[in-house]
Amino acid sequence: MSVFICMLLLCFTRGVFSSGCPDGGELLFNGICLPKQWPPRIYHSHDPPLPSYLTNKPPLINVTIGRQLFVDDFLIDKSMTKGVAITYHNATYRDDVNPVLRPTENWENVSHGTDPYPLFAFASPFSGGLFWDPLDSLYKMWYRCGPGKQCYATSTDGIKWDKPILDVVPGTNIVNDNTIDGSTVWLDVDPNVPKEERYKMAAVFAYNHYRSYTILYSSDGIHWNVVLNQTGPIEDRSSIFLNPTRTPRKWVYSIKSGPKPDAEGPFGRSRSYWEVDRLEVGANWSTYSDADVQDENSAYNWTNADKFDPPWGCGSENYTQLYNLDAVAYESVIVGLFSIFTGKYCPSGAGMNRTGEWDSVFLGFSRDGFSWSRPIIDGQHRVFLPMDAHVVHGDDWRWNKANVQSVGGGFTMGSKSGSPLRFYVGARTGPDQIIGNATCGFAELRRDGFASIGMEPGAETSVLVTPLLTASNMNYLFVNANNTDDMKIALLDSTGKAIPGHAASDYRGTVPASSGDRLLVKWSGNSSVSDYGTSGVRLQITFTSSQAALYSFWVSSDTCGASQGWVAAGGEGFTSSRDTHGSGECSQ
User: Fold this and answer.
1) CA distance 264 to 269
2) Residue 527 in contact with residue 485, Cβ under 8 Å?
């Protein structure tokens, strides 16, 4: 029988290793040291560079915060590992209910015809925002409506949405009547944030010629006050996100830009970067594209579509581009949602049948908030949230026929074991997807389900070893896995010897089941992993079946499995931006 032996070298210590980095840079929560010059000054490239933390890993990786995901090889010691493979997984559209938001009102440009999606009707986030609000126990969505206004909807379950009648534009659910190209709305649940700043909007208004952000704050997400009329220069489809993993936390301006071509060709739509502690303070960059000379006032060149992105769909000489980049903190990583642009004005016929923009959402992952690792499968970045593949058969009215783009906040999550992550997207349909016919739907993914690690096909013996890890004040080990009955989990001391009571022979499986997204590891002796000194311990997992798969592991201070990781746009049962309670069904 093939045996998959997984050794996770896990050093549980009483305190976090000493703070500070050799050159005076910032020490991140995960042990990564940022250089003193941060963000870095780089140039756009068609050949994507690997993040430096993958080529030069920290001597100790801190796993105190968040579930540890196998979305890259950060947790793999290649010198000691053989015969394993990472498998990346896609979300699944809930087309039994999609689209969950569609234009239904006159101010959303609905004409009273017979078509289910009248021409030019628009009710879709473009990024906009979608968050769980723990104070009101509601999902809240801000979306672009009709001829470029900002509308607001609420839901108790994330599927059935209400459009409340408000007083901003009486008789409608419009919360901002100024024409926008797009906006990002962010619900800031940090308890230290003043009430009047709880909701934040970065809008790209027509009155600024779509060439700068306007920053607005609100206490209720409905009535907004401008706190900064103009930032530095941008192009129209620009967005923002919060990176809470830094100290102090950083607001990131994700700036649409158009860098100059290099020797391999043009880049087209790309991204520049600017970070601030407060959105309205210091947003004063002077330029936003590649320049021969970059100074301290220039926005930072950031990222672009690269040689591994799909080719232009029309088969012409045009080129794939990065239309937009939204991002959000989830557990121990930043998840990037890359809206990749692969076609426009493509002729009908020849299997095309799309006249609008060919945009789909791809994934990237970052552990420092700037550098991206984007999965490559069979020589390409694989689409995560695609346009509908059946459109080529001639159905003009599929809700996600074209222009699929992510929502501000990224995705939501459920508090109960087994609850999936939900990724909402805006999309367009109908005979002309350039202008309108826009709705919103969602797809679901297992919690932590971006990637799993397991046996490489054909491997007789497979061994996975992580770099040395550390954690502080943690008591219990949890896994998100399939078929833990086909595993043997042991704790080893720093010399590699099994710790009495925690040997493989003492392993008693996981509770409450052998497969699930929050499984507590049990031993016959003592299930606590807190009684080990600074010499640390090692975790050894032996897989006896190729069906066994590991999605994540983490350590927790309680048997409910709170990870202390970030929870994206939140979800039912979460009261803050962190997982502080673990299982919703658990009582300590």
Assistant:
1) 16
2) no
* Residue 53, H or E segment: helix 52-55
Q: Which of 403, 441, 578, 584 is nearest to 141 (CA)?
A: 441
CB burial of 414-449 (b: ≥16 within 10 Å; e: otherwise) equals: bbebebbbbbbbbbbbbeebeebbbbbbbbbbbbbb
Closest of 39, 203, 87, 34 to residue 547, by C-alpha:
87
Concatenated DSSP letters of 3-31: EEEEEE-EEEESSPPPP--TTS-PBPTTS
- Per-residue pLDDT of 175-210, as tens digits, reads 999 999 989 999 999 999 999 999 999 999 999 999
In whole angstroms, what is the distance from residue 317 CA to residue 84 CA?
39
Q: Which 3 state secondary structure label does DSSP give 196?
A: helix
Per the CB < 8 A criterion, the answer to whether 27 and 17 are in contact is: no
- Name 224's bridge partners: 218
DSSP 493-556: ETTSPBPTTSSGGGEEEEES-SSEEEEEEEESS--------TT-EEEEEEE--TT-EEEEEEEE
Phi, psi for 364 (deg, rounded to 5): -140, 160
- What does the buried/exposed string (b/e) look like for 568-579 if buried means 16 or more CB atoms within 10 Å of the residue's CB? bbbbbbbeebbb
pLDDT digits (tens, 9 = 90+) for 311-344: 887 766 678 999 999 999 999 999 999 999 988 7
DSSP-based three-state secondary structure for 327: strand
Q: What is the pTM of this model?
A: 0.94
Q: How far apart are CA 279 and CA 300, in angstroms?
A: 17
Give the SS3 label for residue 226.
strand
3-state secondary structure (DSSP) of residue 409: coil
- The first and second tokens of residue 298, run together, are 């220039």
The distance of Cα 179 from the centroid of its chain, to the nearest Å, equals 28
Q: How many CB atoms lie within 10 A of CB 77?
A: 16
Work out the number of other CB atoms within 10 angstroms of the CB of residue 281: 12
